[in-house]
Design a protein that fits this description.
The chain is an alpha/beta fold and 269 residues long. Helices cover 46% and strands 11% of the residues. A five-stranded mixed sheet has the order 1-3-2-4-5, with helices on both faces. α1 packs antiparallel against α2, α5 packs across α7 and α6 crosses α9. The radius of gyration is 28 Å and the shape is elongated. The chain starts with a helix and ends in a 13-residue tail after the last helix.
Length: 269
């Protein structure tokens, strides 16, 4: 039992060792040896390690839905304006339809990062959106996998005024992303190199959100997404035929009056 527990903790220990290099005695860099050690981990340990990380993620990560995201993404009761905005990290993931079945590595890395954040007192709040199950919410935010949104949620001042909510969109490589890379979004502030979310679809400060119609727009976009592609081809064909029929009808009426197409009077008038 003690041996199994040690092996289960080894991946997290190795990840922390990469960041802090605690064994760099006498100027030696032991990081290559940690990489080799991870390569020699038995394949049978993959499932228990992943299960442990998933259990921690399930406890510490809030799944966002179309019903709870507004209530969830609010400042903590103990937060004050003087302490600055509260950071949130939100994973945007999906399944076979929305992520083409390529988000498996992203979710494994996210779960492992959640386990590491559990031991970090400065860790941000964690949440996730599954665009496969929450298609309307992803349409409302006009987002899709695979990405991490680093949200700086402002705390209202005494007069209830609050500055804008800044959202950094960090795109994830579905093949090579690691837990260390996700953790460094917060610890090394790599989110600052990512673009900020701007435009009318901004979940908090966009035009649609301020007008209170962002959810309605989300349902409309979601509905269009359900239509097969040939539906739009038929619609375009119908519209183009209607335009052509009207144009031909005007030409026929002009010819019936004995006037050239240019609109000038006939020569015998």
């Amino acid at each position: 039992m003690r041996f199994t527990t040690t092996l289960l903790l080894l991946p997290a220990t190795l990840t922390l060792a990469q960041d802090q290099k605690p064994l760099g005695f006498f100027g030696l860099d032991f990081e290559p040896y940690f990489e080799k050690a991870k390569a020699y981990l038995p394949a049978a340990l993959a499932s228990p390690v992943a299960a442990g990380a998933s259990a921690i993620a399930a406890k510490n990560v809030v799944p966002l839905t179309n019903d709870n995201w507004k209530a969830t993404l609010t400042p903590s009761p103990s937060a004050t304006a003087a302490s600055g905005p509260e950071p949130w990290m939100i994973l945007i993931s999906g399944g076979n339809k929305t992520c083409f079945g390529k988000c498996g590595q992203v979710e494994r890395a996210w779960n492992e990062s959640a386990a590491l954040f559990a031991a970090d007192p400065t860790a941000p709040h964690l949440a996730s959106i599954d665009c496969e199950a929450q298609a309307v919410l992803c349409s409302t935010w006009l987002t899709g996998p695979a990405a991490v949104y680093y949200v700086l949620l402002p705390v209202p001042a005494a007069d209830q005024s609050a500055p804008a909510t800044t959202i950094y969109t960090v795109t994830l490589n579905t093949t090579t992303v690691t837990a260390r890379e996700i953790v460094e979004i917060h610890t090394k502030k790599t989110y600052e190199r990512a673009p900020t979310y701007e435009g009318v679809f901004h979940p908090f400060d966009g035009t649609f959100a301020k007008l209170g119609i962002n959810v309605v727009i989300g349902y409309v976009l979601w509905g269009f997404g359900l239509l097969p592609s040939w539906t739009f081809m038929i619609l375009i064909s119908f519209v183009s035929r209607s335009i052509m029929n009207r144009r031909i009808g005007r030409q026929d009426a002009t010819m019936a009056q004995g006037r050239p197409l240019g609109g000038a009077p006939a020569a015998n008038q």
